[in-house]
Amino acid sequence: MSLAQQLMKAPIQGENLTKNTLQYSWHRPPQFPKYDDAFRHYIDSVIANEEALSGGFSLVMSGMPATTAISSLLVKMVGDGKISPDMSLLLAGPAYKVFTRMLDYADIEYLTGFESTKETTEFFKKIKTTTPPTPSDEDQRPLPKDVIEESQDVAEKVNMPTGGLMGAVPEDAEEPQMSMDLGAPEPTNLIEEEMTDEPS
Amino acid sequence: MDNLFKSLKKLMYEYTHLDDLTPRRKERILETYSKYANNYDFVDELIPVKEKSTKEEDA
Lengths: 200, 59
Prior knowledge:
The complex is a heterodimer.
Chain A: H1 3-9, H2 15-18, H3 35-47, H4 50-61, H5 66-79, H6 85-105, H7 117-129, H8 145-157
Helix pairs in contact in A: 3-6, 5-6
Chain B: H1 2-16, H2 23-34, H3 40-46, H4 54-58
């Protein structure tokens, strides 16, 4: 595209005022305008959420600094319209502290993001040399017979419909009877026509 | 956007390295969070610092 074409396609002055900018969630008021609510949301959605936390752990274990992980998360929260950019600055310190404490508890070695270049290089060298954990022989042992038999008995007791949950109901199955208490009919303002047997 | 990431990183450092800051800056950070229920002490005690095992201490 030539420069002249680009200039022709450029927005005219004041065009931004005619655009509907409310389609972006960060242009609307945030969902959590108060710090306490925002911090609680962070704890509920990240720290207490096993899936999100394990995702964060795996990112950090692969070499991403904790500061970057938390920054990305906060920017995503801003993008989703959960918090305002100012709130992300207020939330940064507490969010980072809680996340790193969780990493310390899980005995995970990680980059904080404040290390020197030499320390970072050493960390990545260490990651390359260490092998990922493999299941031990004890974990791969076959289950005892009584445990297998018991699990089979339990599986037989569970009356799962054949063909999956949406499968056809067996013929000998009893039809469930539902009783509905409709109660007395409520009075309405409609005028009811009286039925008469008289010929018109 | 780059400035936002830099600001976030700076604030994370200041929040977790209070002792390295000047007394005035330290007081300002504590004062910022003191008006909320989830203040500095609350966040600090939310997940306590993991104590080192006796084996590590012996070594």
